[in-house]
């Protein structure tokens, strides 16, 4: 089985560096795919209320044959549930769908700045962590100004910020901000919809290592110190993705892949998406 590198949060808890992202995984297939992913070595499963498959995630975790303490479960609060009481209710609903008595990491899915309620949502997450029902808390798609505001108003620093990050959008400035604040960076859409698979730096690294372009890019994320949560619905691809954790890129390869930056986003802009 592939070894599992881990990252340590600012609260002292740890998380596997590579995970299985459940965005766009059909609800009827989720439990089976979680079991298959656990079977090939995954221990981190990234879900969200929006994905519509929390029930399958919970079922997969409960039936995968692993002790609960060996599986790390993330879910997220959607934009229309911001606000202190609303967020607490949304978390209760997620607990009910998951069928788990603990969530390892609970995130605010987007800052949704036009709604202007993410600080109250953050206070609710702090409460849930204090009550012990949620082990660690974080955010997703937050920009520096959003991070500064929640920390300035609560004194509580997120353990993690999950952001769109891939070779065309390496997010160097935001990663530096995270490093200064002690926040783990987690990459969603880490393969960038395959847009850089044929790029010269990726091809050269693949030729040197005998790896696939996808493995090279995932190894690049890990070399940057990020967590990555690729998605696949094929068992062979799940195993291939996880094997990237065993790869080691040369420093010049890491730099060259970061040089593919174009600023292209596959998803919404956090400044305006609410």
TrEMBL record:
The active site is at residue 51. One of its GO terms (molecular function) is oxidoreductase activity, acting on the CH-OH group of donors, NAD or NADP as acceptor. The keyword Oxidoreductase applies. It catalyses: hydroxyacetone + NADP(+) = methylglyoxal + NADPH + H(+). Keywords: NADP, Oxidoreductase. The keyword Oxidoreductase applies. Substrate binds at residue 109. The record marks 76 as: Lowers pKa of active site Tyr. Belongs to the aldo/keto reductase family. PANTHER family: 2,5-DIKETO-D-GLUCONIC ACID REDUCTASE, NADP-DEPENDENT OXIDOREDUCTASE DOMAIN-CONTAINING PROTEIN. This is Aldo/keto reductase. It comes from Rubellimicrobium roseum.
């Amino acid at each position: 089985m592939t070894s599992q590198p881990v990252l340590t949060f600012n609260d002292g808890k740890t998380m596997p560096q590579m995970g299985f992202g459940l965005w766009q995984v059909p609800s009827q297939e989720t439990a089976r795919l979680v079991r298959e992913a656990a079977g090939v070595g995954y221990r981190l499963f990234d879900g969200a209320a929006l994905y519509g498959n929390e029930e399958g995630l919970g079922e997969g975790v409960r039936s995968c044959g692993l002790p609960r303490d060996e599986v790390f479960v993330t879910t997220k609060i959607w934009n229309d549930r911001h606000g202190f009481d609303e967020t607490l209710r949304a978390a209760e609903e997620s607990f009910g769908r998951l069928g788990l008595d603990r969530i390892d990491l609970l995130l605010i899915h987007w800052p949704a700045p036009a709604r202007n309620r993410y600080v109250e949502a953050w206070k609710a997450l702090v409460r849930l962590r204090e009550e012990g029902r949620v082990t660690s808390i974080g955010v997703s798609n937050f920009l520096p100004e959003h991070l500064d505001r929640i920390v300035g108003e609560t004194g509580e620093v997120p353990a993690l910020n999950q952001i769109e990050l891939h070779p065309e959008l390496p997010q160097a400035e935001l990663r530096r901000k995270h490093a200064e604040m002690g926040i783990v960076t987690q990459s969603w859409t880490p393969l960038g919809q395959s847009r850089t698979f044929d790029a010269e730096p990726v091809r050269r690294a693949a030729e040197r290592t005998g790896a696939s372009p996808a493995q090279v890019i995932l190894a690049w994320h890990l070399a940057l110190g990020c967590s990555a949560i690729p998605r696949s619905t094929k068992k062979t691809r799940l195993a291939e993705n996880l094997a990237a954790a065993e790869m080691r890129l040369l420093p010049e390869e890491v730099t060259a892949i970061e040089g593919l930056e174009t600023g292209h986003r596959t998803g919404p802009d956090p400044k305006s998406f609410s």
